[in-house]
Design brief:
2% strand, 7 helices, 3 domains, mainly alpha
Length: 183
């Protein structure tokens, strides 16, 4: 017969035991005895010192075991470096493929891609971006809108300031009533 479930204090996992839990570790820590219990034990400085001293004594007595450990550790590090390179390559490839999508929309795009497919998700994101831009422009004042249009024209290569064309008047009078002297 199973006893009522117990919940690990570290990970929150609920588990059942066939027999009543009576071991000392459960009473002290209330952990699930596997990964969480091991993690808790590894945090204990006295345990770490005791294990470290045992390893030092073992490797001092067995130099070939130490050499084998170094070989295995180097192979594992090489595989980790390889995994890091692959992860970096994957991120670069993703950034290239999703370069059209602004970073703030990536999570939404990935969710929609799972639900609707890549083509539909891209159309949805582009539509949402266009709608958001329309809402943003509608909230601007006319002066802000003109300023943004000018900035876009300058970024496209247009000149910001134009020099007015100065030409001589083609008439002999001014609006103040004075006659212009012919030159």
């Amino acid at each position: 017969m199973k006893t009522p479930s117990k919940t690990c204090a570290m990970c929150g996992t609920t588990f059942f035991r066939k027999k009543k839990i009576t071991h000392k570790r459960w009473e002290e820590t209330r952990t699930c005895g596997r990964a969480c219990g091991t993690r808790l034990t590894a945090r204990d400085p006295a345990w770490r010192q005791r294990v470290g001293e045992g390893r030092k004594a073992y490797f001092a007595a067995n130099p070939e075991a130490k050499a084998a450990l170094v070989v295995r550790a180097n192979a594992q590090l090489a595989s980790f470096r390889h995994l890091a390179d692959r992860a970096k390559a994957g991120r670069t490839k993703s950034q290239m493929a999703l370069g059209w999508c602004p970073p703030e929309w990536l999570d939404q795009y990935k969710k929609w891609r799972r639900d609707y497919g890549a083509t539909t998700a891209r159309e949805m994101v582009e539509g949402e971006i266009a709608d958001a831009e329309k809402r943003r422009l509608a909230a601007l004042t006319p002066l802000q809108r003109r300023t943004e249009e000018q900035i876009k024209r300058v970024q496209a290569g247009a000149g910001l300031i134009t020099v007015p064309v100065m030409r001589r008047a083609e008439h002999d009078f001014s609006l103040t009533g004075n006659a212009l002297v012919a030159m």
